[in-house]
Amino acid sequence: MDWIGAILERIRTMECPACGARLASCAVRGITAEPHAVVVKLACTVCGESSVAVVEREGETKPAFTKDDVLDAHDFLQTWHGPVAEVIKTA
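^ that's the sequence the OP posted. Answer follows.
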């Protein structure tokens, strides 16, 4: 399976964090790609809520983020009003 196919396959099993609907037919937009994972923005077609997901390539066993990391980032970004460059720093 190609990289895009793998991303879409993984997303099909995810649920919207706001309403619980399956994200099988959600809108997907890539945010950034790393050697072993890609970060995507998902928009639920049921409730319209946007969320972010980290999708890893097949064979990766260590998660890049825990569920708590994602929830913490979501809470932080709900109140953030500055430029993205101040939040995201590249190594």
